Amino acid sequence: MSVKVRFAPSPTGYLHIGNARTAIITWLFARKHQGHFLLRIDDTDVERSKEEYEHAIMDGLTWLGLNWDEKANQKDRTARYAEVIEQLKADGRLYACYETPEELGLKRKTQLNRGVPPTYDRAGLSLTAEDHKAFEAEGRAPHWRFKLNHAPITWNDHIRGPVEFKGEDLSDPVVLREDGSPLYHLCSVIDDIDFGITHVVRGEDHVSNTATHVQMFEAISGKAPEFAHMSLIADAEGGKLSKRLGSLSVKDIMENEGLEAMAINSLMARLGTSDPIEPFTTMQPLIDAFDFGKFSRNPPKFDTEDLTRLNAKILRDTEFNNVKDRLAEMGLNDLDENFWNAVRANIEKLEDSKDWWDIVNAPVISNMETEDRTFTAEAANLLPPAPWDETTFKNWVGKVKESSDRKGKTLFMPLRQALTGMDHGPELNILLPLLGEEKTKQRLKG
Ligand code: GLU
Environment class of residue 32 by beta-carbon count within 10 Å: exposed (0-12), middle (13-18) or buried (19+)? Predict the structure, then answer.
């Protein structure tokens, strides 16, 4: 099976978490089948589309590691759209309508009040040549709708299984605006045909669009591609994703949240599937296990806490070489492999390495009672000789406890204060070997 898919963001905003999930899933499907991944920028809406967003979307995809084999912009394809539009007009599949948005709103309201489905009443279809002239004389320009056949529309969705719509239950979609510019539906279908898309993968908010697209595909090329519509992510309580979460952008996650790209990939690839959510440091295992058959039709719950947890686990499995440059960018040029190996299981985000680094390297100012200071200075004499590891602290504290009358808080707090200058903070068993004998003694003696 040769596979060609596309990810088709509109550059009217940043890549948000829901889009990113669509991109990840589409990409995994392509890579699983040695297919072709097209990045299609849906920028027909010239008012709202911005190059800044297009670049941010590309940066976001690149950061996630989702490379594309080809890129196309809809704004470069207007001549082709015009050609197909002329053909569809000649075939009698497009018809002109003159309603204003207010008039359409009113029709909708009346239908809803009468308890009938608010589908477009096709008034445009019965206009005579005189009616057209009269509207144009009023200064109205037409918008154009695609005339759906009133027949069953069916497809076998890779995620939702058999889907069926009746043509008569759907409004004829508007495909051409008053100003002559084509709308998303038609452009998308023309592109999917011309670029040879075999599978359209997108969110289930597009299911009823797809029903109308199927007829457009048939009208233009005789054949529709296959479809996979995934359920939309919900929040931790199962409700619609809040504005804040829903608009959480990859740019923000990348620049401000300090999360690893693989935490997002690991979560988004598996959310709502029957595979367990696990921390992965590369895409390959996600590609290998990918299968639309594993996706549930229920909306999966998304919790940012899951991202943080995965992030910590991913860092724990990350080799020094893979973070070295980023640590250097954070000013931690001297942080070496030993240091990384000691702290990586004890951080949630990469930037937490800086806290560890500072605790080990910055001077400690501890505020201690004289009595406590005498105690820590004496404890220093019980330190075992190097080499130290993560068991050193426990053994040492055992000895300190035996030789003093202290236990619990009165035993640990002064040691922590002397070593870190803080009442809370890093695990001392990890810290001790990082500090090494000399620094530890110095800090305990104050
Ligand atoms: N630009 C559309 C969107 O962002 C694309 C939908 C599609 O995949 O066809 O919703």
Answer: middle
